[in-house]
Amino acid sequence: MLNHSLWEKLGKPLIDKDNPPACLNLSLKNLPEEHWKPTPEFEHRYMISDKGRIKLLSGWTSDHNIFYGEEQIMPLNLMGKGDTQYLYIRLNQKEKRTLLMISRLLYYCFVEKFDMNDKTLVIDNHNEMLWDIDLSKLSLCSFSSLVNRKKEHKNRSKEMVLKKG
Q: Any idea what the CATH number is for the domain that residue 47 is in?
């Protein structure tokens, strides 16, 4: 099952729709070598895989009305533009609604734990394609160092254009 909304927001990249990349794959079937861990602060309700997929666990809920929900893969969303795009998920638990960046959750759960409440710490995603997540290409850094690095990269790009012109 394909997350059509995200696929369109990503610019309809050429993919195998019968075997979509993990972030676009809504099938409950585990992907090859996919591993799952509980999602921090939502351990009894959601899990995250090392491929960046979020699973809502089956069970009874009483968020608004009492009902039994089936297990499902949650569709990811896209926020931002250009270099600042990122995948996120909105998780709900009782009265608590939280928006979480997928790269931040992946780093915390599968690379190294850090203070998730410290908003000065960000994850720098070095993956070429946003939807093809390689955990080894995620790094933890301060927000200020990320901004400085992006400014340097932008300045170098301008210099190269000027030299060619």
A: 3.90.75.20
Where are the extended beta strands (E) located within the chain? 36-38, 46-49, 54-56, 59-61, 67-69, 72-74, 77-79, 86-93, 96-101, 121-125, 138-142
Exposure string for 12-25, b = 16+ CB within 10 A, e = fewer: eeebeeeebbbbbb
The tens digit of pLDDT for each residue in 41-89 reads: 999 899 999 999 999 998 877 666 676 778 999 999 999 887 778 999 9
Task: Please state the domain count of the chain.
Answer: 1
Domain containing 25: what range? 4-164
Is 54 exposed, middle or buried, given 0-12, 13-18 or 19+ CB atoms closer than 10 A?
A: buried
Q: Is this model's pTM higher than 0.90 or not?
A: no
Alpha carbons within 13 A on the beta-carbon side of 139: 10
For the chain, the residue count is 165
